[in-house]
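Deviations from the work plan: none for this task. Representative record:
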Amino acid sequence: MEYVSPEGLRLDGRRPTEMRQLRAEVGVVAKADGSASFEMGNTKVIAAVYGPREVQNKGQQMNDQALVRCEYSMANFSTGDRMRKPKGDRRSTEISLVIRQTMEACILTHLMPRSQIDIFVQVLQADGGTRSACINAATLALADAGIPMRDLVTSCSSGYLNSTPLLDLNYIEDSAGGPDVTVGILPKLDKVTLLQMDAKLPIDIFENVMQLAIEGCKAVANYIREILLENTKQLEFRRGV
Amino acid sequence: MRGLQLSLNKNQKLRVERALEQLESLSLKSNSDASVTVADNISVDCEDAILKGHGTTELDGRVVATLCGVVERVNKLVYVRALRARYKPEIGDIIVGRVIEVAPKRWRLEINFSQDAVLMLSSMNLPDGIQRRRTAIDELNMRSIFEENDVICAEVRGFQHDGCLHLQARSQKYGKLEIGQLLTIPPYLVKKRKQHFHHLEQYGIDLILGCNGYVWVGEHVEVKDPMLVDQSNKSEQQNADSENSMSANEVETCTPLETRQNICRTANAIRVLSTLGFMITVEVITEIVNLSTSLNLDIHEMLGPEFYVLVAEKEAERRSSLRKKR
């Protein structure tokens, strides 16, 4: 199948190095300490953060740092065919783990000893790149909850189809079976915290594809920063003196 | 708009936007570039001697924020004041909390902090106002003082060596709160002041603005000085104690309808203010309550879209008049 037309356009009309439209909103769950929704094109994810709060299971309590937990789930209506998925299947446990490790790397857990931070992310619409969208939403929610972090983590995926590196794959491109590289970076520190790929790629091509994903991450970071700054200013001027 | 899930019509939307714009213009002059997000650089003038406070860290010799908030500078200290975050206790803060567990010699309280707070039996005055060593019998009778799910007002005593947060309630004004409503608002909206207990005489209610963002609105309770109580008890006992206690019970059981309505009205005023994200003080609350009564609004109508718009406009008006006075 042809994923990039001779004119250099993808199936949804994007250029190979073009991202889908980003949209984010902070403070969507009233009861949570921090929350955010994040959209990348048709992929829509909601994240809620609770904590730092008292550890529920005393056995897991750590005296020098906070416990970070994460739960990823997909809404039944998020995909084309409505399926009732059992909670805690292999895919969602794996993504929960990935998100947890990525977020733990940037949260300054030593500042909140003997407490726990819960991150809940749910996919409302799935159209490829749910993993990256979840990480971006979780970052926004954590920042909204006022949890100290080293840096914002942002994530973006890229792939390689029809011998062209493509940025931000959608569902059709994702299910083409080509390589799919998900990268998560700390944009300020310029460090990679997440790198996943489930196919083979020659090393020189891989570097190009990864570089493209990093560029995507940086674009997402700029957008997230704008949203957060706008939100902070809003809160501050409404509060008044 | 954040936190405001209301269906405003076109006209109301315009009015809210205008009011918010006015508020923004009022605050812009004071600090425009002080807001930072995570990993933003904080510009520091004198590089040699600064103290990095909360919400900051050092990266390649530069000061970087680790929170979203507002940069505050006090002499050499530079820190980031977080807005939406959980409560951070400071010694002497007055807080409202809920008992979640009765443990040996202590109660555990939920106070919107990252850990549960501890109120020791020994760090509170017994209800009968006697100062003495707490015995095993007192320990067994702890549930007669506070039970699970009771709402309590107390003061932050400090952190213990093991990192636990300890509370104290060594005065008659602290203790169990009954007949009223507990509201949960973001702690950054509560300003720290000398006075957190308020008695709104015109409504006959008590208002406790806990520093942890828990607000209590309840029927007014007369605080009795333990010394006075002892004296009066003695004299009363000589008269007729059975009669007295009977009448006291009857008064206690029925709260007048008017007081209940006032409680609900005040609670709704606080709800509206906190949803709009305005600073919550007694003056503002009474102003909003008066606004609603002067408009002859029902209590439930206060949570409708029109009232939100009115409150936003009122706040803009209030702040601009404050500025003019200066």
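Chain A has one domain: 22-80+90-235.
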